UniProtKB/TrEMBL annotation:
Residues 96-520 form the Major facilitator superfamily (MFS) profile domain. GO terms for biological process: monosaccharide transmembrane transport. The keyword Metal-binding does not apply. Belongs to the major facilitator superfamily. Sugar transporter (TC 2.A.1.1) family. PANTHER family: PLASTIDIC GLUCOSE TRANSPORTER 1-RELATED, SOLUTE CARRIER FAMILY 2. The chain crosses the membrane at residues 136-156, 188-210, 222-242, 254-273, 334-357, 369-391, 403-420, 432-454, 466-486, 498-517. PROSITE patterns: MFS, SUGAR_TRANSPORT_2. This is Sugar porter (SP) family MFS transporter. The lineage of its organism: Eukaryota, Viridiplantae, Streptophyta, Embryophyta, Tracheophyta. InterPro entries: GLUT (IPR045263), MFS_dom (IPR020846), MFS_sugar_transport-like (IPR005828), MFS_trans_sf (IPR036259), Sugar/inositol_transpt (IPR003663), Sugar_transporter_CS (IPR005829).
């Protein structure tokens, strides 16, 4: 979820020589893990108190974790830290979240892997100069991702996150190896499709998993690891891709390396926990209690299970939801918000700006496209680190609104530099500044918050389906922007296109203000009950 908008910049780049010749200018007892299941709360626009279902005593009695297990002292002290010095309430869930975030590292790696080596691949496999085939090699990744995202909801409902992660490593590993061994166009296309299929599943799966295993207080910060994982993957692939400028066969080594994270995730998930919410929904109450005890603390066990069962009772006890349910209130409203957020994210121009940034850097003397892309990746990474720090302090809504406003200002700054008669050096510097500001602004809010807030607003029953729908919308918009961006630049020029990106960013900020609610500090069950009461 996230830096996901980097994909179609690679599609755009396959048409450089055809489209951009005339343009020079232009992202175990922890009492202190405050999993606020028993606290009252307020949402900024949904001021409805959460109430608890009291009719649970019979099912609770038969499924209690033993008294010895509940009362055992957790390695962390009562203040959530070691000796009360530091707040380490996030630590028990961190290894599980880290393993999941490695899937996003794989995603970022595959995004960056096509930025440079596509030329070497085209030359070796015999389609050099054919811009359509080069674009197809890149874009078939998106076709696979679209199918993968749509299928994830049903897989998660039936199998749970942990097993779905492990199954998903199969197309990721096979796709990377097939691509690395490719000696024909069909083989590289097949490998890229399989990789896209796996990435599409991961894009939906990782935010769901993190939102369901992370303690409420740290859910946003841990969710930001999705974005950080993607950034690190991009940086790694761009760094490893530098030798490809001199070694025409280096792309095969890079694709072999791409299979390694899949093995790590598959093995790591063997030791990771499953979502306690899914375990409870599946009737595995004891397993759910053990997970809550391990990740959130013994004091949270009974309250958490009570919350899970109360929500499951209202939603329905069967594991698999129907696609038609996202057309019913309140699910339809959340599906609309999720789809709209990704439409606005993509049409705010992140892919186009990332592509055009290489030309902007060339204007100030940075001729290496790999070096320019690496600088962009580091900017994106810095923004993601800021998001990790701010998201649970300032809140999702404030962060995403500020992010889009920053993106709008950045775009208008670039437009000013392009349109008005300035000194060439000053114009180039303003373009660089606007580009860096835009990417940083995207990484601090529009990228990570979009993937975090959608599963938070979704109900336990329809979370997988709504996320699948939202991300499939993302992939369609990603493809459309990549397909038509250069045509629009050729017809209208850089400035009008960038101005439209700024206008869409303003529209996205307004949308976030009027349609989003603040979810900071609220458990998923509290959010769900509040939304249900407004339906």
């Amino acid at each position: 979820m996230n830096s996901i908008g980097f994909v179609s910049s690679a599609i755009i780049s396959t048409h450089t020589n055809l489209k951009l010749a005339s343009f020079s200018k232009p992202k175990i007892k922890i009492k202190t893990i405050p999993y606020s299941l028993n606290s009252s709360f307020r949402l900024s626009k949904l001021r409805v108190s959460a109430t608890k279902d009291q009719n649970h005593s019979e099912s609770q009695t038969s499924n209690n974790v033993s008294d010895d297990e509940v009362t055992e002292q957790h390695p962390l002290d009562e203040n959530g830290g070691v000796g009360g010095g530091f707040d380490l309430g996030w630590l028990p869930s961190f290894p599980h979240v880290l393993i999941a975030s490695l899937s996003n590292f794989t995603f970022g790696y595959h995004i960056g892997i096509m930025n440079g080596p596509i030329i070497s691949i085209a030359r070796e496999l015999g389609f050099e100069g054919n811009s359509f085939i080069e674009g197809l090699v890149v874009s078939i990744f998106i076709a696979g991702a679209f199918i993968g995202s749509l299928s994830t909801g049903s897989l998660v409902d039936k199998l749970g996150c942990r097993l779905t992660f492990q199954i998903d490593t199969i197309p990721l590993i096979l796709g990377a190896i097939i691509s690395a061994n490719a000696h024909s166009l069909d083989e590289i296309l097949g490998g890229r499709f399989l990789v896209g299929l796996g990435i599409g599943v991961n894009a939906v799966l990782v935010p769901i998993y993190i939102s369901e295993v992370a303690p409420t207080k740290y859910r946003g910060s841990l969710g930001s690891l999705c974005q950080i994982g993607t950034c690190l993957g991009i940086i790694a692939s761009l760094s490893l891709g530098i030798p490809s400028e001199n070694d025409p066969h280096w792309w095969r080594t890079m694709l072999y390396i791409a299979s390694v994270p899949g093995f790590v995730v598959g093995l790591g998930m063997q030791f990771a926990v499953d979502s306690p919410r899914w375990l409870c929904k599946a009737g595995r109450i004891n397993d759910a209690k053990r997970v809550v005890w391990e990740l959130w603390g013994a004091s949270e066990v009974e309250g958490a299970i009570e919350e899970f069962q109360s929500v499951s009772k209202n939603d329905g006890s069967d594991l698999d939801s129907r696609w038609s349910e996202i057309l019913e209130q309140p699910h339809s409203r959340v599906a609309f918000i999720g789809g709209a957020l990704f439409v606005l994210q993509q049409f705010a121009g992140i892919n186009a700006v990332l592509y055009f940034s290489s030309l902007t850097f060339q204007d100030v003397g940075i001729q290496s496209s790999a070096l320019a892309s690496l600088f962009v990746g580091l900017t994106n990474f810095a923004g993601a680190l800021c998001a990790l720090y701010l998201i649970d302090r300032e809140g999702r809504q404030k962060l995403i609104i500020g992010s889009y406003l920053g993106m709008a200002i950045s775009m208008f700054l670039v437009v000013y530099a392009v349109i008005f008669p300035l000194d060439e050096q000053l114009s180039n510097n303003l373009s660089i500044l606007g580009t860096i500001m835009y990417i940083f602004s995207f990484a601090i809010g529009a990228g990570p918050v979009t993937g975090i807030i959608i599963p938070e607003l979704s109900s336990t029953r329809t979370r997988g389906k709504i996320m699948g729908f939202s991300f499939s919308t993302h992939w369609v918009c990603n493809f459309v922007v990549g397909l038509f961006f250069l045509e629009l630049v050729e017809k209208f020029g850089v400035a009008p296109v960038y101005a439209s990106f700024g206008a869409v960013s303003l529209l996205a900020a307004a949308f976030a203000h009027y349609f989003l609610v603040e979810t900071k500090g609220c458990s998923l069950e509290e959010i769900e009950r509040s939304l249900n009461s407004k339906a």
